[in-house]
Structure formats: C-alpha cells, structure tokens
Amino acid sequence: PDAREFPVTAVPPRWFDVFGVRPTTGRAFTAADGDGVAVVSQDVWRVLSGGRRSLEGAHIVVGDRTYSVIGVLPRGAADVVIPMPSEDETAKDAFPVLRLAPGATVERAQAELDALARMLTARYGEPEAPWSLRLHPLRRPPDQIDDTQKAMVGSALVVLFIACVNLAHLMLARGLAKRRELAIRMALGAGRAAAVRLMLAEGLLVLIGGVALGAVGAVWSSRFAQNLMPPDISWVSAIRFQLSWRVFALGALAAAVSGILFGLVPAIRVATSVELTDPLKTEGGTTTGRRRWRYSPLVIAEVALALALMMGGGLLLRSVHRLRGASLGFEEENLISAYVGANVAVTGPPRGGRLDTITVDWARALTAARSIPGVLDAALEGTAPTSGGAVTAELTGDTTRVINTVDYQVVSPSYLRVHGLPILKGRDFAAGDAAGQGVAILSAVAAARLYPRRNAVGHMLKLGSPRSAAPWIPIVGVARTPIV
Q1: What percent of the chain has pLDDT over 70?
Q2: SS3 of residue 72 by DSSP
C-alpha cells in the first residue's frame, strides 16, 4: 500500500498507566514486548487498515523499521505510539510526567523534588547554573485562567447580552405591531397566556435559526483557523481544531435559557397591555414617548457594548495582520523549506524480513536542489546535539560565562546566504569548517549576552556546561539572525 505520513510518539511502557489511556482493541505494550510493537489510534487504523478488524498480522513501517500493531487507542489519542528506547528516557529533551499517589499533595512532592535538585546540583551541576525541578499541572486549574481567556469569555458574554437585548427588542416591536391581532384573538376567546405562548414560539424560531447559523459558523471558523496555521512548522501538525458536542450543547442550552428569559419579559409586557378596545383605535403609533424613554438606557448600553466589541475586534484583526506581515529575521520571500521525515504505512506480515535502510547523501541532495531551474541556492539545517542544556562561553583565561540556551542548530555553509542574513562581524561559514569540531556564528543578541562590550569573534564556546565533555568551538562571526 501507499505510504501515509502520521505523527509518531515514542513513550515508555508506563505512559499508559500514568495517563490512564486504555486501548479499545488489543492491548498496550509492556517492557516485556521489547521495541518491535506499536499502538495506533482509531483514526489511523480506520484509514490504513482497509476495513479489517483483526490486528493479526498488522504491521506499520516507521522509517526503516517494522512494528507489529498490538492495540488501537480511542479516538483523539496519539496517532502512532511506539516504545521509547531506554537511553532516550534520560535525554535532555525528555521531561517526566508524574501521577501523585492517593493522599499525596503537590507541596510535599515539590519539596522532595527540591531536595533532589539540590543533590543533582552538588553532584553534577554548576553554582551558576543550578538544577531546578518544578511541578506544573498538565491541565490548568479553573482558578488559573489567564487574562486572554478572561477577555475571550467576557467578549462572548457581551455578545450574548447584545443578542438577548436584540431579541427582546425584536419581540417587543413585533408584539406592539400585533396589538390589534392579539386584541382580536382575545375578543374571540383566547387568553393572555395564549398570546404569551404565541410570542414565545416566534422568539424560539428566531433562536433556533441563530443556533443553526452559529453551528455552521463554528465549523467554518475552525477550518478557517486550521488553514491559517503555517503547515511548514513542525509542531503545527499536533494542533487540531475540533468541535466538541459538549461545548455546543452548553452553548445551545445557554442560548435557549437566555432567549426564553429575555423573550418572556416583552411577551408578558405586550400581552398584559393589550386591551379589547385596541381594534377600535387608530394606528397612529406603536409606543409612547414614556415607553421609548423607558427603554432608551438599554439601547444606549447595547450600542456602547457593540462599539466596544467592534473596536476590540478591529484592534485584534490589525494585530493579526501585523503579525502575519512581521519580519521573521530573514528574507522569507521566495524561500521554500522541505522536511524530510518518516512515512508510516500499515502492511501485512513482512515478506522479505528486515527493510533496507534508507540513507541520504545530503551533498548530492544539495547539488540536485541547486540544479533545479529557478533555484538560486540551497542549504541544510538540523537540530544540534544538546549537551547539558547550557552554552558556556570562554572569556579570558579560565573565566567562563554560562547562559541558558535560546536555540542552536547545525547548518550547512550556505545557510546564512540562502536566508539573506548579513554578517555583522567576522566571516561566514566556509566549506572546510565542518572538519574537526566545527565553528560557530552567534546572533547579535547572543553575542551581546555572552560578550557584552567586547568582540565575540575569536573566542571559544561549548554547547554544554563547563564540566561537560562537549568540545570547544571557535566563534568566527556574528550575524543578524534569530538563531544562536
């Protein structure tokens, strides 16, 4: 079958127990299964299985390795889950997730972590870069809603209030316009309760139409927001805008309750004000000056809130427009990025045993890219191997300065030239710089932090703490780049 691309997550066997995730079909892998098994989500299994229900003989191919599928996770879970190698559990970019035991408190757990951090600092760390372990809940408590979320909830409540006031005004105007009709109905034997029910029924029709339009708008806006996300950023694929039926049900219930409450008042008001003599009166007007004055403050408040929302929405749209047009620190026009990743496919039992390992000759790949008509130049970039989570800069003699890493990458010599990043001091990368330990070019911000009031060119740095085994790398230049 054709290969399909899905995000792959590597986790230890304890991950399923810590997060409380249970497969709906099959089972989760354990430490005894080794590293040749995998678990997939229902969405992936439905797309790739070809309609089969049995897991027997099902395999997935990740890169150059084949994994046996032993379980299917519930919908919405990670797409493909494979065992994490034991050595990766101690890697720098791995972070632990804890589930507190019954009766344990966050304060007690944090105290134990503080003691562990002090021990790690004394044994492995540096005084200027002590270890720090902090507990953070994966799900934010309700009392920790930030200002942005409060503003969004407040805006939604204001919109709901304006809609309710509009509905009340609509029903009031509709009722005043139907005074003669209601009076005739009452003269024929209908009660005032029937008039209230009639007006509420009309209001409910408007409410149902509004809820339907809101549902269509929610579907459209979620797809629109997903399309606005830049697809060439790796973490964007993990963000999915999904509509929740719980949220929709809560919104529909709030709309129904608020619509009935705000529609009941004008309905009762109109029904109780109708007189049987109204058909004999002229239709010179629908309301008196006193009634208009009575509802004027409500109209003024509604208009003021609507104007405030319009101004806030306009400012938000202007900010989004500016952010989309903001400079990324390099010349992004006519710049195309390509990601080389692993494809995943569901297959039957492997026929030829182990798959052939795919290797890439990056030099030939760059040459082929440069030979494409219209391509001026090409470059490579990749994540640098981390060592200790810090950058150590050599100042003078044995004096060093340590800062936390902002970002650093391994790039080919033509990287800065392709991105249009000028060299401020020193020189650009050269073809022979990759030999040996390599060289480094700092951003202007990193150079100012590591070497304030002095020239960084000619000094040495290492990607790690002073005691780490990372090699010292000479600094050959400073560039106007957002990357260290």
Answers
A1: 76
A2: strand
